[in-house]
């Protein structure tokens, strides 16, 4: 600014106005700078607190992350244990299907093989299956009748699966009585053979109710096992959902590290503060010049128009400088507010993480209970599977029993055919002997009559008193106490069928207790 020149006293009031404007600008600038400096100083402390909070947040978040990994490991362990149990159960289900299919197959086979009516109808003397409803049924498992006697003594009772075999009326070895009964039997045979659909099958002598009870017990035990398994079915997904929820709630790491953000903010504030200091110095210099000019004017000096125009021009630039100062102050305030918000946000993150830690502690207790429950489920499942396996062994025994039952029946058919052949052969021999004896007796009678007619009149009566006797007549009878054996009528095709079935099961050995 140039030195003052003499001027008219009328210009001095205008100079006072310029001095006041300059002073006001300087005072406002000082206020802005003072507030900005205060915020700048506080910003440094805020930045330190943000860094400290960020360090805590990152440390706790990392610790929580590790805890969540452990929780995920627990969920995976429970899932693997459940998978191992499910594999065992699936294996049992496969075995169960195999056993039930085998049992159903032999039962269908039994249902497809008819039993001649002579084996179970008419009197007890002609039935080969014994009494179907014995008085002792109530004392036998599943209603089975007393085992057949051998040599007058009861045979050993069958094992439990055989209890599902039932026997109709009659027993082996009983004898029929009377020709009238035989005639009735023959008539009934003709009627029965006319329609085999009315014949009983081997399946009719099986206690289906006992089998259904066994299968129902297996099904109930299997459902109980499923209920045991379902106790922990929700554990893995529930844990995973909880873990995912906690992990998603963790603070997201900033793209730019907090330290870098703080450094950039403080550097920006340093630059802004330096710029404000320069502008404040400019305002102070302008005010000093204007105050000096006013003193010179009061001392009697005057300024030229050019000097006054220059002072006016400088004063007119004050609003621009003040606007820049105000912008700088707003920048400082904005950066300060961002630091404060960062601190508050970090504090909120820290508070949230502390709450997550509490949730993790509760989750740890829950997982401990889950593991204990899973261990209990494993023990119960092992016990249930052991019991179910024993049930399958029962099905296996039933299948084996019915296979032996069918095989024994087929051999029974062949045995009856063999006995009929024996009976026919012996009866042929007996009938032949009787016919020969009758012929010999008749011939002997004729010879004796001829002799008596020729010589009897010439012999004294007291010589050989038996000369007039008829020859002894002979008959062939069953052993004393025995009755004639009555065997069932068996069609030839049934004998062929039995033989073919035996050839298809040649590897099965039938013992004396098969029936």
Automatic annotation (TrEMBL):
Domain of life: Eukaryota
One Gene Ontology term, aspect cellular component: phagophore assembly site membrane
One annotated GO biological process: autophagosome assembly
The protein, known as: Autophagy-related protein 17
Acetylation recorded as keyword: no
Boundaries of every Autophagy protein ATG17-like domain copy: 26-458
Molecular-function annotations in GO: molecular adaptor activity; protein kinase activator activity
Membrane topology label: Peripheral membrane protein
Keyword line: Autophagy, Cytoplasm, Membrane
Functional summary from the UniProt entry: Autophagy-specific protein that functions in response to autophagy-inducing signals as a scaffold to recruit other ATG proteins to organize preautophagosomal structure (PAS) formation. Modulates the timing and magnitude of the autophagy response, such as the size of the sequestering vesicles. Plays particularly a role in pexophagy and nucleophagy.
Any matching Pfam family: ATG17_like
Span list, region Disordered: 127-186
Principal location: cytoplasm
Signal sequence bounds: none
UniProt subcellular location: Cytoplasm; Preautophagosomal structure membrane
Similarity-based family: Belongs to the ATG17 family.
